[in-house]
## 1
Amino acid sequence: MDPVRVALLGCGTVGTEVVRLLHEQAADLTARIGAPLQLVGVAVRRPTRERGDLPVDPALFTTDALGLVKREDVDVVVEVVGGIEPSRTWLVEALRAGKSVVTANKALLAEDGPTLHAAAVDGHADLYYEASVAGAIPLLRPLRESLHGDRITRVTGIVNGTTNFILSAMDESGAGFSEALDEATVLGYAEADPTADVEGFDAAAKAAILASLAFHTRVRAADVYREGITEVSAADVASAKAMGCTIKLLCLAERSGDAVSVRVHPAMIPRTHPLASVGDAFNAVFVEAQAAGQLMFYGPGAGGAPTASAVLGDIVAVARNRLAGVRAASESAYADLRIRPIGEVTTRYHISLDVADRAGVLAAVAGVFADHGVSIATVHQSGRGNEAVLVIVTHRAPDAALAATVAELRGLDIVRSVASVLRVEGE
Ligand code: NDP
Ligand code: HSE
């Protein structure tokens, strides 16, 4: 029986676990695929790096990833390096040459997925990327296959484990953002440079991938409205609690009419919402579809072994397709829906203002909301001598109207500061 020959690009956190699973599950994988998988090369940056007791022949290591991809005896290329270049060059080369590709590279897919999909069509090859969103959770295949008979209306997700750990810690202990980030760093959840996670870039890339699949429309990372969690304060978390809410970094992709909106930002959600109980570094994605109703996907969204599980699932799928002489359906972008700018998106808002505590202040503040057509749902005031904190929750309003309201409030001399503006979702 001819083996299916696999080239592995990258052997770090995810790659080492891919190697381990390929070795440990070899007999079962052979039975499931109908042919053995053979690892024929491993491209890394530092071939002499200590890699523990990894079950791989050291002679397979190379620094020439492109050379490995071009080898005639390679059937499947597995990319777990990350970044845009040189990964894009390697994968385009592989796909155009008819080699199936399995990748966990969310950054590349969200930046330039169409180029990869086009190369897959040119080479009549498979492109699978289950591990790129929400680690081990089977999510992209259900969107790409199981739900293809339905119309998805909304995808709401917690797709970044680091920020979910930080916000959960703030909620549980009352800690501030910096303190919770320090804890996440010590425990190994946050990277030395946490920017991609805490500023929402990682979640925005995943949101673009999810929205593209859910709405049959090309959505790139640049189309995603993005805010991170660095401005979320202990006071915001306490205020959310007082409202029966918790704060999560949400990815929200919604279809209304012939447009989609895709955004990533912190939001208050009721504690009764299914996503509110997703704690620690777990991920969860809530999918709403016309016929299916509400579906929830939950599990570990990162880590070497969980992510490698998703990679191996894809390897089995592409290997089976090769043996059967078929390939999976191409990119589905036929709907080509308009991307709705954030200003047109409507939601509810929680605004916290530091104001002077004297006659007419509340009326002046309420007047600014009224002038911009933003309807107030609740107001709560707590006094501090001559100063007060006003917490206002609005009914649904367009983001542009709320932004104009906040800009005008900042200009009032009775408003000392706009302490925070948070969206309220899930009601
Ligand atoms: P790591 O940084 O741990 O590993 C990267 C690997 O790529 C290393 O083996 C490195 O070599 C190799 N590499 C880097 N540059 C080159 C190059 N120019 N040529 C050849 N090899 C190179 O990354 P992760 O394993 O954490 O992530 C890999 C991918 O998986 C990324 O796209 C990431 O977004 C994605 N992902 C990661 C998850 C996780 O939990 N870690 C979860 C979901 C997705 P060397 O070992 O010599 O340094
Ligand atoms: N940094 C990411 C997270 C890893 O915290 O979820 C998984 O993509």
## 2
Amino acid sequence: MQTTVTTYKNILGGTQKESASKDFFEKYNPADKTELLGKFPKSNQKDLDEAVGEAKKAFEVWRYTPAPKRAEVLYRAAQITLDEKEELAQILTKEAGKPIAEARGEIQEVIDTYLFFAGEGRRIYGLTGQSELQNKSIITIRQPIGICGLISAWNFPSAVPSWKIAPALISGNVVILKPSKDAPMSGYKLVENLYKAGLPKGCASVLFGSGEFGDLIVRHPDIKVISITGSTEVGKMVYETCGRMLKKCALELGGKNAIIALEDANQDLLLEGVLWGAFGTAGQRCTSTSRLIIQRSSWTDSFLEKLVSTAEKLIVGNGLNEKTQVGPLITASHRDTVHGFTERAKKEGGKVLCGGRVLTGSEHDKGNFYEPTIITDIKPNMELACSEVFGPVLAVIPVNNFEEAINVANNVEYGLSLSIYTKDINLAMQAADKFESGIVYINAPTIGAECGGAAAFGGWKNTGNGTREGGVMALDTYTQYKTIYIDYSNKLQRAQID
Ligand code: UN1
């Protein structure tokens, strides 16, 4: 029985503030629709203008704070996040539904992200080069851009905002975060903890709202950088607006990721990898494995049987239960969308090996649960082979050989994460070369990207616009170059002009 419901405020420039709209939206637990998790403000233009005003003032201080000092805030935030890891993981599971072990992993990702970008505070390297003239130097430095509008998705409501916040702040920018209305609390906690860690007032705001409010952020003339994780459809609209306004824009959009299983694959490893890639987070990752492209071989049938029998045993339920392996889908309407894909796949000739139904009965009636689903005999041009489902539905596409497997893997509009299971190093490396994707895995599933150093995260084709989160490359979104010529010849020198 629900007793008290928390009514949240925005964090506007460092202090809690009600929205000028005085209006709210409600957020329920996807595993238990009777549990109202909180009421959140529906922010409007007035709130945004106020947050921008605070951000502008803060930027003038933060941009001139030495980056190693800025880093200290991230180090402290990492420690606070570690101290509160369990509490934050519980909040995450309640709002996004993912099993608690996955939620703990996601909070660890926040910690790792803060630690990595704090380290960058002692680097943020530019470049020095050679001048065409004597007694002249050229150095190029990176400088912050200003106010960054960060719009995040519900499926990674802690890690993904941290991928945006950390590189933005370490580079000297200030941020306004709009968490997804379907998982608003984790983003709020992130910013709250940054303030606990000593972030100067105004450097970060959290404004709650829906997609329409996100659009106000994208259109605000004083917000100079937009980073959004969401659907390809929304990303295209955002990019159009940013294009017109000449804003920097980072897009992390849809995926249709695949594992290729060659006939020499280690079957035990493959089995685990496919199950985790397809059904981890109930398939609600932009990196989820939604296609298994399997080379026809003597073991294909027995492997699929084993895959099915293991998938059928996965425990689907409330993520707070330590035994749960697959949580709910985020909303009932999203579950209906997922179910629509399986229904249409059946009509197109797909053969359902397991799942394909909305889960009902006892605990399952309370939430948006869907059976882990495996559908085989999917042809490369069918809807299930091409469209992003964002749910626990795996399309099995049998192929005859390596070349066909590569062609099928690339035969989609998206290009986020592709994987190959083989013991043949030559074929593994040829696949890595030919895959049309930003991320490649060899003998590991398509999920589980890291955030540090070389681990650039992002996709090719309709998955994005070429920007990257994670890795040092993330700094490209949040910095602009400035080239400084120093002429110490004491005379007017002219470079070659003919
Ligand atoms: C996402 O689904 O938007 O690689 C990000 C992974 C996670 C990130 C997914 N670390 O699966």
## 3
Amino acid sequence: MEVLVTGGAGYIGAHTCKRLFERGYRPVVFDNLSTGRRDFVRWGEFVCGDTRNPEDLAACFARHRFAAVIHFAAAIEVGESAADPLKYYENNVGGTVALLQAALRRGVNLFVFSSSAAVYGDPERVPIPEGHPIRPKSPYGRTKAVVEEILADCGRAHGLRWAALRYFNAAGADPTAEIGEQHEPESHLIPRLLEAAGGGGLVSIYGTDYPTADGTCIRDYIHVNDLAEAHRLALEHLAGGGESAAFNLGLGRGWSVREVIATVEKVTGKTLDVRPGPRRPGDPAVLVAATGRAEERLGWRAEARELEAIVETAWAWHQRRPRAFEGGEG
Ligand code: UFG
């Protein structure tokens, strides 16, 4: 079974390709390498192409008989999306529209989409169920929310069967440490702390006056291989006639920034130079997933349930990863 994986040279995409390959699928990675890495494409064919280019897409669909599409390719920086919104609408919305047109034209109607907890904005309550109001606070989050609406419209009009997977905070790396998280520049908390542990340097805590027990933001960190497995299960859910829906992917519990720092210090054995700083605009105080829907309908349950175990895999990757960057962000 051939599966088109856009953005398969990126962090979550590469882990998903590995999981699919191990389960007998044939992933075909479609990626423009603007942020993905060629050396992450190890489990299936590589096609260099851009989702915004209908010709690239048509050529790829003509050469393969895809049973399904898993769509990761997107720009992912919340802050950048506020400064350059059209980049996000063009890439994340325009690219998805072109991809859906190419897929539906070829009769491919199973579609798994990388959505985000960013669709919720500031939660009214935590843990956040999928039925929570959708009120994204950034252009990035709005692109994800808009695409979910587009998928639902295509379901009604064209029989598209879709799953929108709303990731909370992806973290960790495959235990083999052959693929992992790396962005350029790095903005995410855990890789930043690991960089500081590896080479020194300062990490700023973005706000210590939140209404949480220790004053720092709480996030639900989910291991990237658990995300990968959810994509496989979502694919099988849709292929088996399961209902289209959005699914939260998280552990259902959260850790504060200070707890993450303490965990990284424990795993690495280093004392980190961290300083309290101002809040980062747009950060909700607490984001924790209600995970019942994915458990009940997909039969999914995260295996890595402790932050320490997740950080251990990220640290192994951090120590092994190539220093020189090949092909931009991860
Ligand atoms: N943080 C710091 N210092 C840093 C980096 C981050 O204190 O140097 C804090 C942030 O304020 C936040 C937490 O650590 O409270 C986690 O921050 P990340 O940047 O690692 O992740 P986010 O929660 O901001 O972002 C994630 C995904 C986004 C998604 C968002 C949903 O990476 O794609 O959740 O809100 F949009």
## 4
Amino acid sequence: MIQAVKGTKDILPINVKTWQFLEEKFRLITHRFSYNEMRTPIFEKTEVFSRTVGDETDIVNKEMYTFIDKGGESITLRPEQTAAIARAIIQNNLLQDNNLLKVWYFGSYFRYERPQKGRLREFHQFGTECIGSNTPESDAENIILGCELIREIGINNYSLLINSLGNENDRKNYKEKLISYLKSNSLDLSEESIQRLEKNPLRVLDSKDPVDIELLKNAPNIIDTIEDSSLKHFQKVLDYLKNSNINYEINHKLVRGLDYYSDTVFEFQSNELGAQNSFGGGGRYNTLFAQLGGKNIPAIGFAMGIERLIIILESLDKCKDNSNSLDFYIVVSSSEYSNYAFKIADILRKNNYSVYFDLTNKSFKSQFKDANKLNSNYTIIIGENEVNSNSISIKNMKTSEQILIEFNKLEEFKI
Ligand code: HAM
């Protein structure tokens, strides 16, 4: 038997209602904040991601699904959406007469990671990008949107972690301070952190190793290195959040796993998730457009992992009920009457009712059993009598009450 590829998951009919519920919430909340949906191809030229996400990040270094296509071009299945959105905005000149663009997206993304709870190789994200503004107001509004969405979904118990990485120069200075601190303690560092220290020192701050965590307690803080303008920006963002009753936790060790961030970065975390405790994250990215050959365009955004949101909903017993919501099951005593059944189904369906009739030549009795199994509200019974008298028997499955109506009165039948 051919199995699905490791790290991928089928979304079965029995689970799909929760996905649809989430998708409806994404549409609703982004509408309230005046964001428009945007869709880009599932694969891009590899450089879209290698130039922006960062050569030394885990994503670009180890996790991209990259292949050479038949034309000899290096192609990558998108590991994230932000860089592809920027590519599309530059290519389609979307910012020409519009100095602010607010877009949202939902789709599947690909990273060759070691699969575990909440970590897949094909996973789904919902995300937003607010492009063309460098104001603290745009940071605050974007974060408020994220919190509003989480609330609407029904998740109350989570943490919003926030930090500022300052500008490029601030980060360079901070890297030097951090490297010097870590090098003087490198004997105690984990193997992974020693490697990161060489290639991407800020990522050492993300280490989950208990000894590293202890050591990092006394490491220099990025906030002590950043310039006044970034500090003021950060303080304003925090003020706006406070003013909007958003609870946050400042965490100066929060750096995020992608290189394109500057100034505000944030993450949504939940204790229900185990090791992969972050279910969403984002931040400001003011240099990404220029890295892709565009103008300097400031922007901020975030993305949430759908599979992780669903794990949280499962733990709260808040997944959506998958029971069938069937309005009518049409039972026919013989396939001779299928034409009549098609006509009835057509009228009911045009009135937006869900209608089911047997397509597998089940016996009369089995069709009734089926109607019960599918939890149908009404059963329509079509036998010789009904067809000859141009009428329809309708049985209310809850009360067992049965009525006979004329065929041309069906249009008026309301449930
Ligand atoms: P990210 O932190 O790499 O950010 O991913 C965002 C979310 O996607 C994570 O918090 C997690 O919920 C989910 N996720 C990531 N990898 C996996 C995986 N292997 N399996 C399951 N879920 C996963 C970004 O992707 C940025 N583009 C976010 C952003 C938007 N920044 C600015 N704008």
